[in-house]
Design brief:
alpha+beta; DUF7882; DUF7882 domain-containing protein
Length: 107
């Protein structure tokens, strides 16, 4: 498991999910584009939703539990980038959801 640090807050994600978020967020920030990042918390964490405003000025850090980076699924990264450009912003989706979305939308 890894952590996305936003300011003083840490949010835990699976390393594979975090690696794809890092890649997609990196693309958007290199373009100087801001967006919301949001996800649903599981019942074990009290349920609810989390939304962060991601901008080039936002204090972000990615910390991974594993020393070996995973191979990236480019359809997943492209889907996250596409979602970031919508009114709702980048929603954390599973790899399976991203592949289904990419096939449907030809992202």
């Amino acid at each position: 498991m890894g952590n996305l640090r936003y300011g003083e807050a840490d949010f835990e994600f699976d390393d594979r999910v975090l690696a794809h978020l890092k890649a997609a967020i990196g693309v958007k920030l290199r373009r100087r584009q801001s967006f919301f990042l949001h996800w649903t918390k599981p019942p074990t964490e009290g349920s609810g939703r989390v939304s962060l405003w991601i901008s080039p000025d936002a204090p972000l850090a990615f910390r991974f539990g594993s020393s070996m980076p995973p191979e990236l699924n480019h359809a997943w990264v492209r889907t996250l980038i596409h979602l970031a450009g919508t009114e709702r912003g980048m929603r954390v989706v599973s790899e399976e959801e991203a592949e289904h979305f990419a096939k449907r939308r030809r992202v």
